[in-house]
Structures are given as structure tokens and as C-alpha cells.
Write a structure and sequence with these properties.
The protein is an alpha/beta fold and about 350 residues long. Helices cover about 40% and strands about 15% of the residues. It has twelve helices and twelve strands. It has a six-stranded parallel β-sheet, with helices on both faces. A six-stranded mixed β-sheet has the order 7-8-9-10-12-11. Helix 2 packs antiparallel against helix 6 and helix 6 (about 165-175) packs antiparallel against helix 7 (about 190-195). The longest helix has 16 residues, at about 35-50. The chain is globular. It binds guanosine-5'-monophosphate (5GP) and manganese (II) ion. The site of manganese (II) ion has 6 residues, from loops.
Length: about 350
């Protein structure tokens, strides 16, 4: 496997680990498999190295990830603010995983950013904008878990990775690549999977739990969204799903229930990008995916102050669902220039 790191950065990272004991690992709001996989993967490794690590995150993990080893030990800021504040206050190192800007941590951001200890960022989003002592930013990685694996290997610590750590890392690799369907053209991704499987990880269990498990209500909500709330903007090759608070309540929505929904319209031949707007209690959550390098991150940045990857991005909108939808529809013309020159026929029938 190619070494992607500068040797002095790896040396610095190793030294930081050696010099620290209380290490806080943290990730972004609405944590996904990669956010939890990278932090928990490192948490298990650091425990094996005799350190006193903790994982501190802004809000609760979704039910689909409750199988991940160590998830019950996570300190969740919305639930245990004083405990999280104490852990961060006492930390001698903070490792931030899977986000590139402080606002992705919501109300936890001031605590993490205000901490006086040393900080490291390990992330695969473009253009990181966080003040830290050491940055590992590699947007070409499939996932932060891939990057964490490479860093562990570069530090010569792979032998310390146990089954629990490997399970967490493989979870992030599987979820961020949508079970090896996107962002996984690099053959080394499969070498990393192989190395993790050698730790006797139960891959089927990860897929069954993280991808293939949902409630009856959630299946109905997703079916309803496709049947009743999907619009196709033919000229722009855009699919848009809009779910209101009432829609969500009708199907007893729980966090994580619409995970993966935004990908579904991309299955329609000829659709280039898909946007999903969900009316959450605090904001409208925007989620988008695309094909052919169509930059949905620009749409999320320009219209909703968000960002992400070229073909998977998100943002938040503070206003009504209708406004959020209207802004997108009115702006679609501006992004037509990014559509591929040779378009497939849109198959609506
Ligand atoms: P998802 O659609 O799964 O919520 O997010 C897809 C990707 O978009 C994430 O990996 C992250 O990079 C980015 N993203 C999602 N929500 C936000 C947001 O509110 N702000 C920013 N800057 N990026 C986001
Ligand atoms: Mn990620």
C-alpha cells in the first residue's frame, strides 16, 4: 500500500500519542458510520495502548449504529453536558474526525474549539477550516476510516488493532462507500478491507445492522417519500424529495429513518442529482447526492451554507420548508452548466 503521509507528520502524531493519556476523540453532529467508526476505531486502539481515551460527540448516534462496539461508552453532549465538559477540560489531546469546519459540531463546537490542549484533525472533506496543531486532510479518501487505517498502519500500530477497532473502521468504510458502490475505485480500499477482515470482523453483521435494518414505519416513510414527495425537474436532471414535519410524524419518524433515501432517485436513468429536504425540529436538513462529478457541494454551499464532497453534500436551512424548496428550484438554472455534455435519456416511463 502506498504511503500517503509526510514522514514528519506521522512522527509528530506518534509523539503526540506517546505524550498524551487523556485523549478525546470527537466527530460531527448527526454522526454516521464514518464519524463513529473513525472515533471508536481509534478509541479501541488507544485503550489497547494503555491510554485513557473518550469519545465525545454532539448528539446521539442513530439506532442503526447501536451495534458498534463501544457505542454505549460514548459521551453525548446533548445528554451529558457536564460530563463532556469535564472530559474535554481534562484532555491533553483532542482528535477531531470526519469534519472540516467547527460548525459541524453544533453546540459542542465552542467547547472543543475553546479547549487549550493540542488538537489533531483527521478528515476527508475538502478545504478544512479548523485551527489545529496537526492536520491530516485527504479528500481523495473514501472515508475517514480509510484514512485512520492508513495512519494507524503508518505509525506501525496495526498489530494493536483488535476485532472491535477493526469492526468500527470497516463500518465507516462500508457506510461511506454505500457498501462499496461509490468512491471506491482505488484498489487499495479492498486491501484495507482485507486487512480488517483478517481481524475476524463480521462483515455480514455490519451490513445487516448498518444498512439492511429498518423499522416497518421507516420502510413505509421511505416508500411514501418516493411515491408522494418526489419531484423530477426534467430539464435540470434533478430529483427533489421534500418531507415535512407532518409527513415525518405520520410515520413516527426516528433519527436515521431516512438514511439512504437521497440515493434512491439516482437509480432513475438520466437523473444527475438528487436533493432531499427534511423538516427537522431545529432546521431544514439538506442532503444531496450526484453522479458524473456534478458538484452538489456547490449547491449546498451557495444556497444553504453547507458543503461536503463533490457528489455527496449537505447543509442546513433556517426558514420554512417551502422557502428552502423554492430557493433550490429558482437556482437550478445556475447549475445546468455542470450537467454532462452528453446526457443519457431520462427514463420516466
Ligand atoms: P449526508 O447527506 O449524509 O447528511 O451528508 C453527506 C455529506 O455532506 C457529509 O459527509 C458531509 O460531508 C456533508 N454535510 C452534510 N451536512 C452538512 C452540513 O450541514 N454542513 C457541511 N459543511 N457539510 C455537510
Ligand atoms: Mn465521512
Amino acid at each position: 500500500m502506498k504511503n500517503i503521509f509526510k514522514s514528519e507528520s506521522v512522527g509528530q502524531f506518534r509523539k503526540m500519542l506517546e505524550d498524551s493519556d487523556k485523549i478525546v476523540l470527537t466527530a460531527h453532529m448527526r454522526p454516521d458510520g464514518d464519524a463513529l467508526g473513525s472515533t471508536l476505531g481509534l478509541w479501541h486502539l488507544l485503550k489497547a495502548l494503555g491510554k485513557s481515551p473518550s469519545v465525545v460527540i454532539p448528539d446521539r448516534p442513530p439506532r442503526s449504529l447501536s451495534f458498534m462496539p463501544g457505542v454505549k461508552e460514548i459521551a453525548v453532549f446533548t445528554r451529558h453536558d457536564p460530563y463532556c465538559s469535564r472530559l474535554v477540560g481534562e484532555a491533553d489531546l483532542i482528535i477531531m474526525c470526519d469534519f472540516n469546519t467547527a460548525s459541524r459540531q453544533g453546540d459542542l463546537a465552542p467547547l472543543i474549539q475553546g479547549a487549550q490542549c493540542r488538537k489533531v484533525l483527521i478528515d476527508h472533506h475538502r478545504e478544512p477550516d479548523i485551527d489545529c496543531d496537526l492536520v491530516f486532510s485527504y479528500p481523495e479518501m473514501s472515508s475517514t476510516c480509510e484514512l485512520v487505517f492508513r495512519l494507524i498502519a503508518a505509525c506501525g500500530l496495526f498489530s494493536e488493532v483488535d476485532n472491535a477497532s477493526a469492526t468500527c473502521l470497516l463500518t465507516g468504510l462500508i457506510t461511506d462507500t454505500q457498501n462499496f458502490t461509490v468512491n471506491c475505485n482505488n484498489p487499495e480500499v479492498y486491501e484495507i478491507m482485507m486487512r480488517l477482515l483478517e481481524k475476524e470482523v463480521d462483515k455480514k453483521k455490519i451490513i445487516d445492522e448498518a444498512i439492511k435494518s429498518c423499522s416497518y414505519d421507516s420502510l413505509r416513510l421511505n416508500s411514501f417519500a418516493i411515491l408522494e414527495r418526489l419531484e423530477i425537474f426534467e430539464r435540470h436532471r434533478c430529483a427533489l424529495i421534500t418531507l415535512s414535519k407532518e409527513d415525518l410524524e405520520k410515520f413516527s419518524y426516528q433519527k436515521g429513518d431516512t438514511e439512504g433515501l437521497v440515493n434512491q432517485p439516482l437509480n432513475i436513468r438520466g437523473v444527475v442529482y438528487s436533493v432531499f429536504l427534511r423538516e427537522d425540529s431545529d432546521c431544514i436538513k439538506v442532503s444531496s447526492r450526484s453522479k458524473h462529478d456534478f458538484p452538489v457541494c456547490d449547491i449546498c454551499r451557495d444556497l444553504y451554507g453547507g458543503g461536503g464532497h463533490i457528489m455527496a453534500a449537505g447543509g442546513e436551512f433556517y426558514g420554512t420548508l417551502e422557502e428552502c424548496r423554492r430557493i433550490l428550484i429558482e437556482s437550478m438554472d445556475n447549475y445546468d452548466r455542470y450537467l454532462p455534455a452528453k446526457l443519457e435519456k431520462l427514463e420516466l416511463k
